[in-house]
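JOB MANIFEST
job_type = single_chain_structure
chain_count = 1
residues = 115
[input]
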Amino acid sequence: MFMQYLLVINSSIENKYVHECVLELLSKFDEKERVLKGIFISSNAVSLCSLDCSDKALQDSYVKQALRLNLKMLVCGRAFSEAHLDKDRVQDGFELSGNMELSMLISEVDKVLEF
């Protein structure tokens, strides 16, 4: 049996070390032993999801990993709004969502990892 995981990302895009660690971890997920059910982005990390993101290379790295793993990257709509980001400027590959989706994902996985 394989373990199912959810990643919750709250760290600002300025915290390069955390995001390097997350991307390294993402590269280790596969369909055989460790399955990633989703990525939920909230708090200080939501600027990563905007078309106006200041670090396009980091944003592209997340999008490429999500495409490779065939999963959605959900973004907390409340946090996105509180960061004064325009909901019409969400980058492709990210999807605004809320606590309902987060709760459902948490109930479906074995482990939640927060960064």
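[summary]
The domain at 3-114 is CATH 3.40.1260.10 (Hypothetical Protein Ychn; Chain: A,).
The chain has a mean pLDDT of 95.
exit_status = 0
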